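Running this now, will post back.
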Amino acid sequence: MRRTIRTIEDVLTMLDARFDAEADRWTDRGAAWWDDFYTDRGRSVPFFRPDPDESLVAWHEDGLLEVPDGGRALDIGCGPGRNSVWLAGRGYEVDALDLSPAAIDWGGERAAEADVTVNFVRGNAFEWPMNKGAYDLVYDSGCFHHLPPHRRISYRTLVERALKPGGNFGLACFAAGAMGSDTPDEDLYREGRLSGGLAYSDDDLRAIFGWMREVELRRMLQKPHGSGRFGESFLWAGLFRN
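Update: finished.
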């Protein structure tokens, strides 16, 4: 008989196993799954385009980020780096994290083409070493909704540690009724699957991130190919201030 549960992280790791078939989406095993996803760059995936999120651009242009060009930014689950490269082009010092080496390589190529510097890192954001309050902006476009419910605890710890006082947290995630699974949290553990991502209502997001001040929470604006901005109406766009 073994008694292996000694810490909160032990409990969270145990719960990870309830979703073993999909744990590749957020654990270190994810490199292979996401590498397969990013291998064919010509796939008709909306966020494969190099365009930054329309909401991120709007917040910057409207002065809602309240960060002068040249602040520090952390891009969680950066993928091929479309938002990271855009932020670097506005003077931000950017750390961009993703589980997939293929995504990181693609992002590096985009940064070189744009003649900007981004610190692309293949790694797990939950294990990323950082000084407390290191970032003016933490941004996540499409990572949060792939986490199982218990990893929201880890996620809050990450964001709390990363943000400076007065720093901003930006999010794009699946909207309930439009994209992703609407299955209640408790039923997810009974079923043992996340169905490709979880949907959230605006009330859900306000409750989860209510320890910060809401600056704006709205549906992302739909943007056509060629507009220079990424926008899909099935996503929430949320900005919160620490």
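The mean pLDDT is 91. More later if anyone needs it.
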